[in-house]
Amino acid sequence: MRKDRKMTLQKTFLAGLIAVFTLFGSSTLDARLNVVATTPDLGSIAEAVGGDRVSVTSLARGTEDAHFVSPRPSFIRVLNRADVLIENGAEIEIGWLPPLIANARNRDIQTGRPGRVMASEGVSLLDIPSGPVDRTMGDVHVSGNPHFLLDPLNAKIVAENIAAAFIELDSEGADDYRAAMEAFKERIDEKMEEWTAAMEPFEGTKVIAYHATFRYFAERFGFDVIGLIEPLPGIEPSPRHLQSIIRKIENEDVRMIWAEPFRPSRTVQRVSTAGGVPVLRLPELVGGVPEAEDYFSLIDYNVRRIVAALDTNSADA
Ligand SMILES: [Zn+2]
Fold it and tell me: How much distance in Å is there from the Cα of 141 to the middle of ligand 1?
């Protein structure tokens, strides 16, 4: 009798253990890498490379300025649980990320750990200051221009960096990550042919941009950004600076203004009206407009808008 009772107890204990395991097992058995990307363009590439083996959260919204993201309470919790943190690498997040990382208390995502990915590694950064840096040069871009992802060829380098980190942290998935990274790069090459062919007729077109966001994009597709509405990165324009930009538009056959959707409408509209050229609201980040659902549709959208505006212009002329 006592033996029976003991066995029943053991069975109950075992059943309890199984129940507990089943209850919590779903998260324990979910061996997916917990990936946090600072911006949704990085998040999109991480999803393409990681597939089912990763779960990706992007901190910044696509509609935000990546330099000035408002931290939300969930950020610290998300960073605390991260296996991987992918950041720009050229300090686009310098104004908001460091205190969040400090508060998240997660050893795995500290600088130098395999879980901390610098997307820019291996990218040739433009606009690196040559002399000493001080605040008279603007608030951002002190490590060079961080908007390199708008050049699709740089997205291939970023995909390689992300794949290398995933492989190091989850070696069982190495073949999957490698295959997905190669597929991503191949798709970039295919799309590049299409994007280049669409943009080629307009090579050398002069534009004004709000911020140096489209520096790499313009360079890749042969557009000439001859002035910025911001006098320095992150610094609001004075009326005098705006006047000089308007004069530039009038004197130098500028065809359009490129501004991200979140830039102040009044300023952009004023320059557009005075200069007599259209404004194109072009997103930098995935999710910046509803059509930009992933990295490819982001570039698709921007190329399509530019080509459509220039085609219309030449038809009108
Ligand atoms: Zn910037």
Answer: 6
